[in-house]
Design a protein that fits this description.
The complex is a heterodimer of chains A (370) and B (295).
Chain A: E1 2-6, H1 7-18, E2 22-24, H2 32-44, E3 50-52, H3 57-68, E4 74-78, H4 80-85, H5 87-95, E5 101-106, H6 120-123, E6 131-134, H7 138-153, E7 161-166, E8 174-178, E9 202-203, H8 212-241, E10 248-251, E11 258-262, H9 266-279, E12 284-289, E13 291-293, E14 304-309, H10 319-328, E15 333-336, H11 346-354, E16 361-363
Parallel strand pairs in A: 2-3, 2-4, 4-5, 5-7, 6-7, 11-12, 11-14, 14-15, 15-16
Antiparallel strand pairs in A: 1-8, 6-13, 10-12
Helix pairs in contact in A: 1-2, 1-7, 3-5, 9-11
Chain B: H1 24-36, E1 40-44, H2 48-52, E2 65-67, H3 73-86, E3 92-98, H4 99-104, H5 107-115, E4 121-126, H6 161-166, E5 172-177, H7 181-191, E6 198-203, H8 207-210, H9 217-226, E7 233-236, E8 239-242, H10 244-251, H11 256-260, H12 271-294
Parallel strand pairs in B: 1-2, 1-3, 3-4, 4-6, 5-6
Antiparallel strand pairs in B: 5-7, 7-8
The chains are: A alpha/beta (370), B alpha/beta (295).
Chain lengths: 370, 295
């Protein structure tokens, strides 16, 4: 069915269709519209979930954990400080192998208070064992949220999935949305280690140095297995519903001499920048990274690479740039742009590409030599 | 129930826990689980109970136990209870948390869960310090008690968690003590008959923490009640009823010194602090007696 929706509403729409048994969430700008819409769906009975209006994000994730371990589907949504506040519990969710799905509306971290888009919030969760995917359109937010449940709950994965969408520049913008009949695309959840009083077991108790590493390795093993599950899920989604996704969205990359890599909504701006440069005779391409965990093997061999990071690891560099540099064993031009909602146009991105200096780092708006 | 013989013989706390000798946490838990029965999940934040259940892959508890981070027990139980009820299961969800996890780091999650009317039982076993980490002071440590972070005795008074819980108007709340297992058993059974949140605050004397010899665990609990330092009561829809044991003790309490003297943690307590403790004790007795008399 065709409609018009914001990124937030698209997420709520997908959640309505998969009918989690328990949703626990705490409001935070710019995620609020998701929880408001969900509360509305629950009040009208369109969504049969138990909606727990918890008193904090730490409790939101703890409640999802408590519900999920009984074997039922769960969902939450947060942003920025909310995500950081639940950090202890995001680790717990992954360690406990619970397929919780969370929408994170990417927003900067204070101080000072800034409610606009930045990826630093999710980047601080990158080592927790969560799968992370970044979307760029309203349609993609909806489609990816649907797929997230199937991927998380797949018994070869059983890890939580975080769907990231840029604050305001996606959460609050309206675009066309084509909803689908999910049918059996998302099978009922089965949790092999669900709590069962008839078969009592201890969960998460003391685990010694002779055992703990085995559980850590098991997370990594499943993270590696998730690559196949993601591919299968996206392939089946394309077959059933006609929209194709992948680990990356590549635009004009095949014959490109220079490729700009980014995540989220900036990836769409980058495609316009590529069109602009192609008219000037520059063979440019855009690679928008969708899945950040597991981190995919990127095909960038023989190309000059410009990476836009909407995040920063102080004392180290742009997280995406450093990750790509390490994987490709090659220098990149690292651009730090869009922090705290800083405006970055396709013209700006075209400029980053034109004036690239491979091996250097450039803070947009700080250094003036681009 | 009038005799201990009526308590079920099924054991859910099995032999070979890694509890210290004379541990009243495991003593209380034994009766809590006997009262709750097998269709129960225990939610345990970081506390002594996370340790005494044993080391993976072994567990000494014959009941599902979900361990969760320190400040998260009530929130976790909140999700669990909602999931069970949504899927038509009547399984008891019981939080079993220490005083640190209840009065301090877990108070926000607990307050939220009570305010939301979560269908669960929250039991705080109170050994009046962070026992698991080596007896640091908590909000539950009484004034004058020496802990590893109050080496000269705690200056501040014990936090009145029962008043805080009472302010949430739960259908049922009670105090109990590991030294009175039949009373505890009855209160747990009763608490589980109510829909919504219920709370039981259990005094759990700790031999290494309070520095008394291990055979005196039950005696310490009884002295606490006899001196009026711990008052056994229950509150049903706000209405208080004080246990007969405590009623007698409140009329003619034994001198507080008889309770404090066997405990190394109160050794060398100064006269002024002792006097303040006695004043607090008298005030609390009066408050609860007046409340009951008014009803």
């Amino acid at each position: 069915m065709k409609k018009i929706a914001t990124g937030n509403k698209a997420v709520a729409e997908a959640v309505k269709q998969v009918q989690p048994v328990v949703i626990a969430a705490y409001p935070i700008t710019p995620q609020t519209e998701i929880v408001e819409q969900i509360a509305e769906f629950v009040s009208t009975g369109e969504l049969k979930s138990r909606y727990i209006p918890v008193e904090s994000e730490h409790s939101a994730m703890a409640a999802c954990i408590g519900a999920s371990i009984t074997g039922v589907r769960t969902f939450t949504a947060t942003s920025s400080h909310g995500l950081l506040y639940m950090h202890e519990m995001t680790n717990w969710a992954a360690g406990a192998r619970l397929p919780i799905v969370m929408a994170n509306v990417n927003r900067s971290i204070g101080p000072g208070w800034n409610i606009w888009a930045e990826h630093t919030d999710a980047m601080q969760e990158r080592d927790t064992g969560w799968l992370q995917v970044y979307v760029s359109t309203v349609q993609e937010a909806y489609d990816t949220t649907l797929m997230a449940f199937r991927i998380a709950e797949h018994n070869d994965v059983l890890l939580p999935v975080m769907v990231n969408l840029d604050g305001f520049s996606l959460s609050h913008i309206m675009q066309p949305l084509d909803t689908v009949e999910t049918g059996d695309f998302i099978p009922p959840m089965y949790l092999p280690h669900a709590i069962d009083p008839k078969n009592p077991a201890g969960y998460g108790g003391l685990t010694g140095p002779d055992q703990h590493f085995k559980f850590r390795w098991d997370i990594e093993r499943s993270m590696r297995d998730s690559v196949r599950v993601i591919e299968e899920t996206e392939k089946e989604f394309a077959t059933r519903f006609g929209r194709k996704y992948g680990f990356t969205e590549d635009y004009q990359c095949d014959d490109a001499d220079v490729v700009v890599v980014s995540m989220g909504t900036l990836g769409k701006e980058a495609e316009v920048a590529v069109d602009l440069l192609r008219k000037e005779g520059v063979r440019a391409g855009s690679m928008r990274l969708r899945w950040f965990r597991p981190f995919p093997k990127l095909s960038l061999k023989g190309k000059e690479v410009v990476v836009i990071d909407r995040d920063y690891s102080f004392g180290f560099g742009g997280v995406l740039a450093k990750s790509i540099q390490a994987q490709q064993k090659a220098d990149v031009f690292s651009v730090i742009a869009g922090l705290g909602g800083q405006e970055v146009t396709y013209e700006d991105i075209a400029d980053f590409i034109r004036k690239r200096r491979i091996g250097e780092e450039f803070w947009f708006g700080v250094n003036d030599h681009v | 129930m009038d005799t201990i013989a009526e308590i079920p013989k099924e054991e859910y706390v099995l032999k070979c826990t890694s509890a210290c000798a004379g541990c009243s946490d495991s003593l209380a838990l034994r009766y809590v689980l006997k009262a709750a029965g097998p269709d129960t999940v225990l939610v345990v934040p970081a506390c002594c109970t996370s340790v005494i259940q044993g080391i993976y892959p072994n567990t000494a508890f014959n009941i599902p136990v979900y361990n969760i981070a320190f400040g998260a027990a009530a929130a976790c139980a909140s999700g669990m209870s909602n999931a069970f009820r949504a899927t038509g299961k009547k399984t008891n969800v019981i939080v079993y948390a220490g005083d640190g996890g209840t009065l301090d780091i877990g108070i926000q999650a607990m307050s939220g869960a009570f305010e939301r009317g979560t269908d669960f039982l929250y039991i705080c076993y109170d050994n009046e310090a962070y026992g698991n980490t080596g007896m640091q002071r908590s909000g539950g440590t009484p004034m004058g008690a020496r802990t590893t972070t109050t080496p000269t005795g705690k200056i501040d008074a014990k936090k009145d968690i029962d008043a805080i819980i009472a302010a949430h108007n739960p259908p049922y709340m009670a105090t109990a003590a590991a030294a009175y297992p039949q009373d505890l058993f009855k209160k747990v059974q009763k608490a589980l008959t109510f829909r919504g949140p219920s709370f039981i605050h259990v005094l759990a004397p700790c031999p290494p923490g309070w520095r008394f010899s291990t055979e005196k665990t039950v005696e310490m609990g009884k002295l606490a009640v006899k001196s009026g330092m711990w008052i056994l009561y229950e509150r049903e829809f706000g209405k208080i009823s004080i246990n007969p044991q405590s009623k007698a003790a409140m009329k003619r309490p034994i001198p507080l010194e008889e309770y404090l003297a066997p405990q190394g943690r109160f050794k060398g307590i100064d006269a002024k602090t002792l006097e303040t403790l006695k004043q607090h004790l008298a005030k609390n007795i009066k408050k609860l007696s007046d409340e009951e008399a008014e009803e």
